[in-house]
Amino acid sequence: MALVSNKLPGNAAGDFFVDSSCIDCDACRQIAPESFRDSGGQSVVCRQPDTPEQVRRALMALIACPTASIGTTRRYDVKAAIDCFPEPIDANVYFCGFTSESSFGAWSYLIVRPPDLGGNVLVDSPRYNAHLVRRLAALGGVATMFLTHKDDIADHARFAARFACKRVMHAADGAAVLGIEHVIPGRTAVRLDDHLTAIPTPGHTRGHMVLLYHNKMLFTGDHLSWSPARGQLRASRNTCWYSWSEQTRSMRLLLDYDFEWVLPGHGRIHHTTRDQMRVLLQHCVARMAES
Ligand code: SF4
Fold first, then answer.
1. 3 state DSSP class of 24
2. Which of 82, 247, 274, 284 has the most CB atoms lying inside 10 A of its own CB?
3. Which residue pairs, CB below 8 angstroms and at least 24 apart, start in 164-171?
């Protein structure tokens, strides 16, 4: 719980505040950009929410925050904000909210599909929370849990136990030790069903994978994200734990695929045309190869 006594000095005066436990995961700034900003290594409330919509978005950020670093000095009813998660992104794809500190606030996503099309897919693990579990159950539960890499698995075991779902993860990120049901070996892409392809993308970690859905949505974990400031797709060399040359090679292989959306664990989401996404990816690969 956020403590007023630890309130960061840069917060705008008013009810909402961020305290010193903030880990700078960026979730609040994405969810409620009118109310939160980066103050150099941590977030602060830059402007107090005043419209009902701004309050709702600020409360959603409070719910999603992995470290409970956002607080209020008076009581708010957070039920409506809780019920906003999972939040629709596009058609049947949702952002789960409820990020986990153990995955540094990584974003997880839900693909909602009828059982005859393979059922729902949870991409990476949110924080295990009773409200979220109820909402997931109401949306049809979880048939498959796709884990992009070992850093963003959070509460995977609890979700797997609750929904009796099959988990998919790469062997090189320790899937066998974790008791994963479907272990992907090697570097060859694997079609999980008619619309889902698991693509090994070693680099950030040895066993990193991305998930392609419907040749449209690419769930990229910590492999690839969007930088609005630069207007570029980017990979992070600072957080490349395994091999930058491998990550560059993996990035180049993504040019073989079509997609319109990049949905990362960390960093910003991007949506554009397939053609424009390919151009952006080509530029990203070129910059990686030069660095
Ligand atoms: S969501 Fe929480 S931890 Fe993440 S930047 Fe905002 S206040 Fe900090």
1. coil
2. 247
3. 165/122, 165/141, 168/144, 168/192, 168/198, 169/207, 169/209, 170/200, 170/207, 170/208, 170/209, 171/207
Pocket test for ligand 1, best of 17, 31, 67 (most atoms within 8 A of CB): 67
C-beta neighbour count of 291 within 10 angstroms: 9
Could you give the C-alpha distances from 58 to 47, 133, 261, 270, in angstroms and in order? 10, 22, 25, 22
The Å distance, Cα 127 to ligand 1 centre, comes to 14
Residues 170-209: pLDDT tens digits? 999 999 999 999 999 999 999 999 999 999 999 999 999 9
Q: How far is the CA of 121 from the centre of ligand 1 (A)?
A: 26
Which burial class, exposed, middle or buried, applies to 198 when counting CB atoms under 10 A from its CB (0-12, 13-18, 19+)?
buried
Q: Is 66 in the pocket of ligand 1 (CB under 6 A)?
A: yes
Name residue 19's beta-bridge partners.
7
What are the Cα distances from residue 199, in Å, to 27, 39, 59, 184, 289? 26, 36, 36, 9, 20
Residue 63 Cβ contacting ligand 1 at under 6 Å: no
Q: What is the DSSP letter of 268?
A: B
What is the pTM for the complete model shown?
0.97
